[in-house]
Write a structure and sequence with these properties.
Order of helices and strands: EHEEHEHEEE
Shape: globular
Mean pLDDT: 87
Structural class: alpha/beta
Largest sheet: 4 strands, mixed
Strand order of the largest sheet: 4-7-6-5
Radius of gyration: 17 Å
Strand content: 25-35%
Length: 143
């Protein structure tokens, strides 16, 4: 299977370039992701659009709800509790999962699943960002 080209085309296949988040509160969302170690530009809290480069070349973008409505007037905030996007951050070890979970929840962010030793061999936890997006924290379990 040729994964470098689109079917029937000599062009390279599209590659994942951006993960976009729509936020109701830019400052709160950026503060949350800064606690996870992302290098968010200083002063970005007042911007309607923010982006950061992640290791590996993918970018994480934030847009305010107003920005999204500016090009999609029919857009409405998702309701009903179903997550549409989930992000996962690999930690160095199981102790770091616990420590990052504690840092985030101590800062007032909602814990969704407290750290536990998952049957698939990882220490795992989930915290919700200010817009309710699940953010997983995980590390390979110590052997």
């Amino acid at each position: 299977m040729n994964t470098n080209r689109t079917s029937g085309s000599s062009s390279p296949a599209p590659r994942l370039d951006v993960i976009g988040l729509v936020t109701a509160d830019m400052a709160a969302s950026l503060a949350f992701y800064r606690l996870l170690g992302l290098d968010v530009p200083a002063g970005a809290e007042s911007a309607p659009h923010v982006e950061v480069a992640l290791p590996g070349g993918v970018r994480l973008l934030w847009d305010t709800e107003d920005v999204v409505r500016s090009f999609d007037p029919a857009w409405t905030r998702p309701a009903g509790g179903g997550e549409r996007v989930a992000l996962a951050f690999r930690c160095a070890d199981p102790a770091q999962v616990d420590a990052v979970y504690e840092t985030l929840t101590a800062a007032g962010h909602r814990g969704h699943l407290k750290p536990w030793d998952a049957v698939w061999g990882q220490r795992y936890a989930v915290v919700l960002d200010p817009d309710g997006t699940g953010v997983s924290l995980y590390a390979d379990a110590s052997r």
